[in-house]
């Protein structure tokens, strides 16, 4: 019997690249899995894949920004699997409207008519708000809905998903950087707040994983690296992008008994990116 046998793990964004791998890893350790995703089809597809491998999983359509949708998902999880023991707040991401087109501003950019140029001054507040909402409010609301199940139940764990951006902002993506910094800070806040009720709260900070969200930023259509992709790899001492399985060991450790005295940490899983000064 693994220490995850019979535990219920709720994974928001569970239809996505990184979180579907996390869901499968927890299922292999005996946890019952609820895949919550905005896209019903992907949630159900991942749940079906887990069930085909002998796991116990359900897919639930859910918007992490809509409290009624979260409450309905919670009812379904309670009815079909039981109260939540592990919550992974995985839904998140960036938006082009919160992204500048260049790394730096130059004086001539202010009056330039270049197609596609988007400076800091052109950023759309709605785009910024979208990114803050998805990453921060989209972590806070599911925690409000599912953490109540965990109060006073030993072995409960919340895992948030931060990013390299939280340590030092990456160029071009101020909204995503700020929102993930907020996630790291919130992880510490929640860890302290929940410390008397038996819920540990920690975060993963993935480095650079080649996924659908960033494929066009990091690679060209022929598969070669973009300048940004090259810069990232040259700043990653281990010399490669992460693969979703690289998150598994740390995830299982943070959710399990081996980390019983660990709460409020944000762990980089980045091939050394955050340790390297660049020289
Ligand atoms: P992904 O796009 O493959 O998965 C995200 C999932 O979230 C999608 O299935 C999407 O449908 C779902 N989603 C989006 N909005 C939602 C909403 N409002 N309600 C419910 N579900 C919603 O992304 P990924 O690359 O697997 O990233 C997963 C997490 O890891 C995100 O928080 C991301 O910011 C973070 N992250 C990714 C990387 C990377 O290199 N890919 C690095 C650091 C952090």
TrEMBL record:
Its EC number is 1.1.1.131. Keywords: Oxidoreductase. It is an enzyme of class 1 (oxidoreductase). The keyword Oxidoreductase applies. InterPro entries: NAD(P)-bd_dom_sf, Sc_DH/Rdtase_CS, SDR_fam. PANTHER family: 3-OXOACYL-[ACYL-CARRIER-PROTEIN] REDUCTASE FABG, SHORT-CHAIN DEHYDROGENASES/REDUCTASES FAMILY MEMBER. This is D-mannonate oxidoreductase. It comes from Pararcticibacter amylolyticus.
């Amino acid at each position: 019997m693994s220490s995850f046998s019979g535990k219920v793990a709720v994974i928001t964004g569970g239809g996505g690249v990184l979180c579907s791998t996390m869901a499968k890893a927890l299922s292999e350790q005996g946890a019952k899995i609820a895949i919550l995703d905005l896209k019903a089809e992907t949630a159900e597809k991942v749940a079906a894949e887990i069930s085909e491998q002998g796991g116990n999983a359900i897919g639930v359509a859910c918007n992490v920004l809509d409290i009624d949708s979260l409450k309905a998902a919670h009812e379904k999880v309670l009815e079909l699997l039981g109260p939540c023991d592990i919550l992974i707040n995985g839904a998140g991401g960036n938006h082009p409207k919160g992204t500048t087109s260049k790394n730096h501003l130059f004086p001539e950019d202010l009056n330039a008519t270049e197609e596609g140029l988007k400076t800091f001054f052109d950023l759309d507040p709605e785009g910024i708000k979208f990114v803050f909402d998805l990453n921060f409010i989209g972590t806070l609301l599911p925690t409000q809905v599912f953490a109540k199940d965990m109060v006073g139940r030993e072995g409960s764990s919340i895992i948030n998903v931060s990013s390299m951006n939280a340590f030092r902002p990456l160029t071009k993506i101020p909204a995503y950087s700020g929102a993930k910094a907020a996630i790291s800070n919130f992880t510490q806040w929640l860890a302290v707040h929940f410390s008397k009720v038996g819920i540990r709260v920690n975060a993963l900070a993935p480095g650079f994983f080649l996924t659908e969200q960033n494929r066009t930023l990091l690679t060209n259509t022929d598969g070669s690296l973009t300048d940004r992709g090259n810069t990232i790899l040259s700043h990653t001492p281990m010399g490669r992008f992460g693969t979703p399985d690289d998150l598994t060991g740390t995830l299982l450790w943070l959710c399990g008994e081996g980390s019983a005295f660990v709460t409020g940490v944000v762990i980089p899983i980045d091939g050394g990116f955050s340790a390297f000064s660049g020289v």
